[in-house]
Design brief:
Helices cover about 60% and strands about 15% of the residues. It has about 180 residues and is an alpha+beta fold.
């Protein structure tokens, strides 16, 4: 029972790290990448649809992306969604593809993105701590109900703390890498 609790906590903490990595990928750096568009939704026939389901992306230069819609009738909606997104881009439409030239990041915009990255990292840490709290409550319940001895529960709690620390440290490493990538000129 204790091992199941710890295993479940570890799986949930791993999932929190994966979500954090996805969130960090959506934060725009100086270079173009398709992951920036993961959180952009297009109003496609009345329903919000992820942009990545409606178009393909080609990075032609370091700061230029070509968006090729699968359905030509959705081109205007895709262009509007890109313009309205928080990416700060101004797409141009030539009828077949949408060209996005990413403007160079100003120092102020870089700092805003660093703040955003820190917020996302803190959200991930909070998620990990919530998993720890729920697992600790379950371990306490196991100890109270007599399903395991006090020594086993104490060992499991130490293991849970180590697990939590390792996962929080991974978030810190990812954040540090993203900050250095953002502040790189």
């Amino acid at each position: 029972m204790i091992d199941e609790t710890l295993l479940e906590a570890e799986e949930k903490m791993d999932k929190a790290i994966e979500v954090a990595k996805e969130d960090f990928a959506t934060i725009r750096t100086g270079r173009a990448n398709a992951a920036m568009f993961a959180k952009v939704f297009v109003d496609y026939y009345g329903s919000p649809t992820p942009l990545q389901q409606l178009a393909s992306f080609n990075v032609v230069e370091a700061r230029t992306i070509l968006v090729q819609p699968f359905d030509k009738s959705a081109t205007a909606a895709i262009e509007k969604a890109l313009r309205d997104s928080d990416l700060g881009v101004n797409p141009t439409n030539d009828g077949n593809v949408i060209r996005i030239v990413l403007p160079a990041l100003t120092e102020e915009r870089r700092k805003d993105f660093v703040k955003l990255a820190r917020t996302k990292a803190e959200d991930a840490k909070i998620s990990i701590r919530n998993v720890r709290r729920r697992a600790k409550e379950e371990l306490d319940r196991i100890g109270r109900d007599g399903e395991a001895g006090e020594d086993e529960v104490a060992r499991a709690e130490k293991e849970l703390e180590g697990l939590t620390k390792r996962h929080v440290d991974v978030i810190d490493v990812i954040l540090t890498a993203k900050e250095s990538e953002l502040l790189e000129v």
